[in-house]
Amino acid sequence: MALGLALGAGPRAAGAPPPPARIDYAAERAAIGRYQDADQRLQDVGWTLARGNARFCPNVVPSIGLQLQDMASYGAPAVAKRALGLAGDFAVQTAARGSPAAASGAFTRNREVVGLEGFDPNQWPARAPMDWTRLVRAHDHVEAMLTEHGGIAVRFADGGTARAEPVEVCATRFELMGEGSTAVADGARVVLGIGFPAFRYPEEPVFAAVVAHEFAHNVLGHDAWLDRNGRRDRNVRAIEREADRLIPWLLGNAGYDPEAGVTFMRRWGKSHDAGLRLRRGHDGWDERAEAIAAEVPQVRALLAAGGAADWRTQFRREIDPAGGLAPRRDR
């Protein structure tokens, strides 16, 4: 996230050089806090979806629900560090609600981190401002430690230490971009821009439906399927339709109302359906809402019968995951 620095505009003599920029650190801290609030919302929902559907995902990983932050990923690292009162570069960003990290009570926002199972990530070299590669390395390291050791000990700059043991979640990371208004999935991540309209929806299940659509692309292997079969409009429409239809399944297993997917599509679609340009890769929003709604009765019946909606075996695919398009069947 690039920081928008506040500039002071005091009086100066004619012809004199401009004074140094005056930085309002309280304003910078507040801006970071607003970004972190949005990120917390995304991580809470992402964790709930990834944990609730872990038994059905083709790939799972151990996780404690911890997300770090690295000052090197800011546009002005020194300003961000001072605004947050940090001596080093790494600190807690979020601990997802319901996760082992949150349950421990130790991973509070902006608590400075100096050790990850014996390694201090502050010692790893950083590149230019807005460098995200070191933060990815830190998260990869945490996941490796959880896999190898069944837990991780985290040391904090205040002298405290916390150890957390993981649980299995679907293998997707959820990331918030500091700008932009899009939502995308790339097979390993779900990425939302902070300007995405759904952040303005107050109901968590409706916001979760947005995340669930992108999450569906990952758990159904859509990116790899498109790589093998091509990104023609026909193929894109098929995987988009499939992701829409999986929304109620993912929501239901996470404890959300499966109907929230319909609510989202109706609310979003009326304002953001881009007509023929969008429809080359998507059905119209009204068709999409109907397709989502058609899944809800089966999801509710499965939840009532066994407590979970097994989309791995019960969900009808639009594509052949190992091949090309599968023939569509009437339901």
User: Largest sheet, order of strands side by side?
Assistant: 4-5-6
Continuous helix count: 11
> How would you describe the shape?
globular
Give the helix/strand class: alpha+beta
Helix content: 40-55%
In brief:
With 331 residues, the chain is α+β, with helices and mostly antiparallel strands.
Walkthrough of the structure:
The protein has 331 residues and is of the alpha+beta class. The chain has two domains: 143 residues, no CATH class; 142 residues, no CATH class. The chain has eleven helices and ten strands. A three-stranded antiparallel beta sheet has the order 4-5-6. A three-stranded mixed beta sheet has the order 8-10-9, covered by helices on one side. Helix 1 crosses helix 5, helix 5 crosses helix 7 and helix 5 packs across helix 8. The longest helix has 28 residues. The radius of gyration is 22 Å and the shape is globular. The N terminus is likely disordered.
List keywords for this structure.
331 residues; alpha+beta; 2 domains; three-stranded mixed β-sheet; 44% helix
Q: What's the arrangement of secondary structure elements?
A:
Layout: H1 25-52, E1 60-63, E2 66-70, H2 77-84, E3 90-95, H3 100-104, E4 113-116, H4 133-149, E5 152-156, E6 161-164, E7 167-170, E8 173-177, E9 183-185, E10 189-193, H5 204-219, H6 222-229, H7 233-253, H8 260-272, H9 276-279, H10 285-306, H11 311-314
Helix pairs in contact: 1-2, 1-5, 5-7, 5-8, 7-10, 8-10
